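quick one, 127 residues, struct below
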Amino acid sequence: MADFDYTNNVVRCKNSGNVIEILKFGPDVDPSDFDVIETITEGDKAPKHKPVITRENDAYVVKVGEVEHPMDEDHYIAVIELIADGQVHKQYLQPGDKPIATFKIPEATELYARELCTLHGLWKAEL
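---
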């Protein structure tokens, strides 16, 4: 397992298609059974996918895209994640929810957000 990069730890199981966040592989798991989902930071789909992070009062607000992302049954944002000074904060979403999350945490020196679109992958932005 020494070759696996745990900083890019979101994978898709080749057998089931499940998207999984790996914290550490166990001794009987073969990493070749998984495809790493690379983070996307730019491109033609960025206006509806790249997270936008703002500081409002005592919270960080993460909105998915400059243009609101659809939240349909077959195409939606499954999770918004904010990583602030090494701490992970998550908001899981369902179809019909607004693609936005508010995290009431202190100001951070290192900060980035990721979101997973069920059709267009894993997107990342830094503040």
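The first helix runs from residue 46 to 49.
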